Structures are given as structure tokens and as C-alpha cells.
């Protein structure tokens, strides 16, 4: 019965012709209400117009009925991310959904496989996504690569004032200084998304930016060095995101928060890397939470590893990889260094083996989890010498990712 239903469906690109159906499926699957749209600053019909760039710039594929009705879809945003100082093309997977009456037909499995093939063709050798179900995406080869942390503390626990030579100015969130600071920050921060106009629009899509202000720190040379998106409501100072290029800028922005002491009772905020702020406070007894945020997946193992910024000289070894969906990632990937110092990936066993699946390889190369930890929990199998080699080769900085798509 399921096969006969699927035989009547066709898979094809979702073009602007289907923008109304795309929007309808998105709203149904993610249960987006008119009230939520209004609270996010959208007028009636504006969400559909705002999604036009998605269908113009992204690769969107879907299953259609005989009557040309869209019933299942997946979207791939063309993005760039910083992986340990090297800019990679990244496929941002989003808009994944199927109407419930067409569930369990294997439609999404086929769309994901097609998406992996398209990303590979587009030289997007890494993919990010926000999971609606971590177990589901783990079965498809993605693994956790970043955390979302929240913190809350009383006004009396604010950091002490630190003398700085610069000053803070309140600006619009779209100010050119804000864009400049984030771009510099993203290009020196592992895991971060390079935001162009399209990415900034997505960043604010579900936020009413009229209720947000950018506090920008300028140094003594009047150069922008740090930024904080914030709002004050109900005696609470809310921090959406804080990013900076120097420690001085960090101190300057916290001085700015402290200047609100008479107006607030509490500070609440978000952090997008595994670095709790409690240690930096004089009174560290604060409330902090942590939860998994984005997942990552290597799309093409050979290509990804060949341009990866390894942290040390390579002694030859080889990965033995298992991938449940992308068959081109199955097998042996030998890693060695040429006489010119370049990295070469060969499909033959050289040196000692490292056995792991695509999930483990992805989270390890993103430095979310270390080789030693993955070996300890038996996700990775190798000998002690090669394990120590991996620990030296893979940079230690953990990913920062604060976007949502």
C-alpha cells in the first residue's frame, strides 16, 4: 500500500511557483501561528514575501502529488562557516517537513539523500542543522556540534567596573559598525557563520528587531571592537548575544550593563559556546543551563579532510568510516603529508587505523568532543599512539554558533 502511494508521487525542485505551498507546509509542520508572526513583527502575508529569497537563493526539493501539491520538502541554504580559521562552504539544512498523512513512506529519507548529493556537487563539504529530533538526525549521520547556554544572576552579582579607555554607543542592530564587528569576529571564531545580507535577515526573522538595541564598544582610537544585542523589560536586562574582538571590549560592554544597576533586578542572557561565565564573576553562585544546539555532518570525507587545518605535522594513519546514507563516505581514508607540507587523502590503509562512524568523525573534527573522550565512550577505536596523535592534530577550540535557520 505504501509503495503504491509513493509510486504516484514525484520529487522535484520547489520553485517560486510553489511559494504559497512552501509557506503553508512550513507553518503546519512548525506550528507557526498568526499570533507568533505578529509578535515577531510580521504583517499579514509578509512572511511569504520574506521567504522569497529562500526559494531564489537556496536549493529546495520536495515531493509532489499527481495534482502538483507539495507534501514533503527540504531546504539547503548556501552558507559559509569558519572551521578553525578556514572558510568552508556549508549547506544549512532547514525547512524539513512532511504532512502527517504521508509519514512513514520514506519520503524524507529520499530527500535527505538527494540533499547530500546536491551539497556534495556544490562543494559544500560540511552541513549544519537545528534538530527537531536529535535521534532522527543521528540516524542520518549528523551529530551535535555546539551548545546553547543561558545564564541568570542578580544585579548585585554584576561584574565590578573595569577601567577601559574606550566608550559604548547605542546603535541600530543593522548599523555598519555592528556588521563590521561580527564579520571580523566570525572570521577568527571557530564554528561561526559568515553573515551576509541574507544571513542577517534570517538571524532576525523570528525576532522583533525593533525591541533590540546594539551596544557597541569603541576603543580609544574610535575603532569598533565589541557588540551586544540587548533589551530591558520588567526590571530584567536581557542579552541576546555578545561578541567582541578584545578583552577590553568585553569589560566595556559589561560596564555598560552595570550602568543599568538602578533600573534592573536581574540579568539574563545567552551564550553559544561551552564557556560558562560563572568563573569570571566575583560571585559565581549563579544559575546556568546548557542544552545541545546545532548538529553538523561531514558531506564528503575526502574533500573535507584534504582542506582541514590540521594543528600539527601528520604521521600517516587512516580512518575507517561508516556512513548510513552517503555511500561515498564508506571505507578507508588514508591521511598523509606530502613533501611540500600539503595534506593528501588517499583511499588506502596507511599507518594505523581509526574506526568510527560519520557522526563521530563530524563532532570530533568540529572539536565539540575530543578523540580521547570519544575513545573512552567507545565511539572511536584505535591504538594509544594514534589516539595521542589525533589529540595533537585536531585543534582544541570549541565551536561557536549563534544563528538559527
| C-alpha geometry | globular
Helix content: 25-40%
The spatial strand order of the largest sheet comes to 1-2-3-4-5-14-6
In what range is the share of β-strand residues?
Answer: 25-35%
- Number of H/I helices: 14
Structural class call reads alpha+beta
Name the poorly predicted regions.
Answer: 36-50
Question: Radius of gyration, Cα only, in angstroms?
Answer: 23 Å
Largest sheet entry: 7 strands, mixed
DSSP E strands, number: 18
Could you report the average pLDDT, rounded to the nearest whole number? 91
First and last CA, distance: 35 Å
Explain this structure.
By secondary structure, this protein is of the alpha+beta class. 28% of the residues lie in helices and 30% in strands. The protein has 14 helices and 18 strands. It has helices at 2-7, 19-29, 34-39, 46-50, 52-57, 107-121, 134-139, 176-186, 197-203, 247-258, 301-306, 358-365, 371-376, 384-393, and strands at residues 10-13, 59-64, 70-83, 86-98, 126-129, 143-144, 147-154, 167-171, 213-218, 224-233, 236-244, 266-271, 287-292, 295-298, 317-322, 331-337, 343-346, 352-357. The strands form three sheets. A seven-stranded mixed sheet has the order 1-2-3-4-5-14-6. It is globular. The relative contact order is 0.13. The model is unreliable at 36-50 (pLDDT under 50).
Amino acid at each position: 500500500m505504501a509503495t503504491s502511494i509513493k509510486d504516484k508521487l514525484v520529487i522535484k525542485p520547489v520553485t517560486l511557483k510553489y511559494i504559497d505551498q512552501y509557506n503553508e507546509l512550513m507553518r503546519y509542520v512548525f506550528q507557526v501561528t498568526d499570533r507568533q508572526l505578529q509578535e515577531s513583527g510580521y504583517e499579514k502575508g509578509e512572511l511569504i514575501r520574506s521567504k522569497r529569497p529562500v526559494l531564489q537563493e537556496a536549493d529546495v526539493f520536495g515531493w509532489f502529488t499527481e495534482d502538483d501539491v507539495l507534501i514533503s520538502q527540504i531546504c539547503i541554504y548556501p552558507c559559509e562557516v569558519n572551521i578553525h580559521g578556514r572558510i568552508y562552504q556549508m549547506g544549512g539544512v532547514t525547512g524539513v517537513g512532511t504532512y502527517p498523512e504521508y509519514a512513514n513512506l520514506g519520503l524524507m529519507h529520499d530527500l535527505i539523500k538527494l540533499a547530500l548529493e546536491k551539497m556534495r556537487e556544490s562543494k559544500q563539504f560540511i552541513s549544519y542543522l537545528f534538530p527537531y529530533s536529535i535521534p532522527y538526525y543521528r540516524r542520518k549521520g549528523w551529530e551535535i556540534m555546539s551548545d546553547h547556554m543561558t545564564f541568570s544572576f542578580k544585579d548585585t552579582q554584576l561584574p565590578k567596573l573595569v577601567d577601559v579607555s574606550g566608550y559604548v554607543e547605542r546603535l541600530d542592530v543593522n548599523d555598519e559598525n555592528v556588521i563590521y564587528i561580527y564579520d571580523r569576529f566570525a572570521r577568527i571564531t571557530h564554528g561561526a557563520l559568515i553573515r551576509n545580507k541574507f544571513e542577517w535577515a534570517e538571524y532576525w526573522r523570528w525576532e522583533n528587531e525593533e525591541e533590540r538595541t546594539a551596544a557597541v564598544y569603541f576603543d580609544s582610537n574610535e575603532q569598533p571592537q565589541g557588540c551586544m544585542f540587548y533589551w530591558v523589560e520588567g526590571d530584567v536586562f536581557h542579552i541576546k548575544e555578545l561578541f567582541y574582538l578584545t578583552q577590553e571590549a568585553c569589560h566595556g560592554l559589561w560596564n555598560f550593563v552595570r550602568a543599568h544597576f538602578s533600573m534592573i533586578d536581574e540579568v539574563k542572557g545567552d551564550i553559544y559556546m561551552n564557556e560558562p561565565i560563572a568563573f569570571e564573576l566575583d560571585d559565581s553562585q549563579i544559575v546556568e543551563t546548557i542544552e545541545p544546539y546545532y548538529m553538523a555532518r561531514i558531506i564528503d570525507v575526502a574533500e573535507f579532510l584534504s582542506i582541514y587545518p590540521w594543528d600539527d605535522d601528520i604521521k600517516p594513519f587512516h580512518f575507517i568510516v561508516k556512513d548510513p546514507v552517503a555511500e561515498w563516505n564508506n571505507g578507508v581514508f588514508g591521511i598523509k603529508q606530502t613533501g611540500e607540507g600539503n595534506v593528501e587523502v588517499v583511499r588506502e590503509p596507511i599507518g594505523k587505523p581509526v574506526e568510527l562512524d560519520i557522526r563521530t568523525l563530524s563532532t570530533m573534527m568540529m572539536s565539540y568532543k575530543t578523540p580521547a573522550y570519544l575513545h573512552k565512550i567507545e565511539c572511536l577505536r584505535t591504538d594509544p599512539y594514534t589516539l595521542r596523535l589525533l589529540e595533537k592534530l585536531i585543534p582544541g577550540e570549541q565551536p561557536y554558533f549563534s544563528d538559527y535557520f
